[in-house]
């Protein structure tokens, strides 16, 4: 048994930490000011351009993308270290391209789609979104109502999709739709590549979310796609979607580990400095318990993340592990950030410190990609069915 | 021109070290290790010389147990062409290091040897100077700028009174000061490439050196803790405290 990350991946982690400290942290006060002014927690196009050029120069693009489209094809365990480092900052920047759609595309594209969608995506030239949830079907994909019907050599799409991030800036989306109502999630759901600007596709509304984020609702009315827009096999969109969700959940969990680690580091910085009633906060048992519990929770979540990523790398099923990890990492980050805010007192309530924005992000992640309760249900059901 | 650069594995500069309870040394358990910052500057300078077309090959050498190969590979990722490890138990004292480096110089015959002025663990600031004495090569210590001109090397040194520029005949030894350059980060592709670069391992016997210790560590203890300072309200109060509490003026 070996619990140590390979030397080159430790060096990669160090490199990403340098990137976060030198290039993301300095932008944080601006991002927090923008959010406080009601403009959303965003970075400007110029700031993104600078970050993109630095991260590209450091070779941090396409880390988990296949080599034949210019990626580094790093294993999932390396990405755990990378995403933990990236998660520490509240600056909304991920190393291009966004991994989850990448894993789904890489697993399904045809040669033509590889050229047209995957390669420019890996090269950071395009932005993608994913459209799964519907107003009446969130966690339960079997309730999906958006349909795709073959009409001659075109697919005709009708339905509504909701909670789509980046729908306003995307070049294309991966869209999930029902192609066989009878079969449902067992052979009846297909994936499609939907270009922005396709006639019949409309952004119905922008939905402001907590923490200065936003998602979108999309309307699809007789939206006609060529047969070549089908991603993967007809009726078999569910499995690659699950793979995409696993990648996303792993990514989110590791961001949460980074967020919790930052909150713990901030407590360790502040608690010895702040004196109340004759002693430092760090000398009080309650604070000490919080520190010890934070460290234990972060450590356990990190071990779970590495183990889950390692199993994924081996091609093994991680259904139970990913659910345990997603529930544990998001919930422990929530508690850790909350305690850090409590430890900082009124300072922790300000929009001058990143803590409240970290809390906002974790709050969203306790819901996104499956609420905690659903993941616990998955674990329990899995345990009970194995008896 | 062949350039030899010495690199040392030390505790990362961000780590606050603690003395071991039994006073035998610093507690290195669970402590992050890194390349000595002055050695990183030395590597960076050598790589810049290569990029400028002045140097043809950069060799990174480290002395220590197998774990120091990690720092050699860091140097390779930063742009060194190949590495040499001289295998010893633990971290030998400066004179032994200088003798071993002299052995490597005899094998490789570099035109320029760049070392950090000191390592941030022992802070000895001795190896470069001892190496100069042992090899009879000219030395330019505490360099803040170096320039190769033909078979001469101009070195700007940071000294107490300001800056001093000296000309050395090559081959020569340079030790780096903090302001010589700002080292780059190794990019990911270079980190991956470093794995495939040549790394030779020598024993002290291969270099004809018998490592013998002249120094013993008697005790390692933390410096005495200082009392927190206070801010006085007025000059009168300051004078009063200096007179009556600190008793440094009368």
From TrEMBL, chain A:
Its cofactor is FAD. Gene3D superfamilies: Acyl-CoA dehydrogenase/oxidase, N-terminal domain (1.10.540.10), Butyryl-CoA Dehydrogenase, subunit A, domain 2 (2.40.110.10), Butyryl-CoA Dehydrogenase, subunit A, domain 3 (1.20.140.10). Residues 7-125 form the Acyl-CoA dehydrogenase/oxidase N-terminal domain. CDD domains: ACAD. Residues 129-223 form the Acyl-CoA oxidase/dehydrogenase middle domain. Residues 235-383 form the Acyl-CoA dehydrogenase/oxidase C-terminal domain. Transmembrane segments: none annotated. The keyword Membrane does not apply. Keywords: FAD, Flavoprotein, Oxidoreductase. The keyword Oxidoreductase applies. It comes from the Bacteria. Belongs to the acyl-CoA dehydrogenase family. This is Medium-chain specific acyl-CoA dehydrogenase, mitochondrial. It comes from Candidatus Litorirhabdus singularis.
Automatic annotation (TrEMBL), chain B:
The keyword Ribosomal protein does not apply. Keywords: Electron transport, Transport. CDD domains: ETF_beta. InterPro entries: ET-Flavoprotein_bsu_CS (IPR000049), ETF_a/b_N (IPR014730), ETF_b (IPR012255), ETF_beta_N (IPR033948), Rossmann-like_a/b/a_fold (IPR014729). Transmembrane segments: none annotated. The keyword Transmembrane does not apply. Pfam families: ETF. Residues 23-211 form the Electron transfer flavoprotein alpha/beta-subunit N-terminal domain. It comes from the Bacteria. Belongs to the ETF beta-subunit/FixA family. This is Electron transfer flavoprotein subunit beta. It comes from Candidatus Litorirhabdus singularis. The lineage of its organism: Bacteria, Pseudomonadati, Pseudomonadota, Gammaproteobacteria, Cellvibrionales.
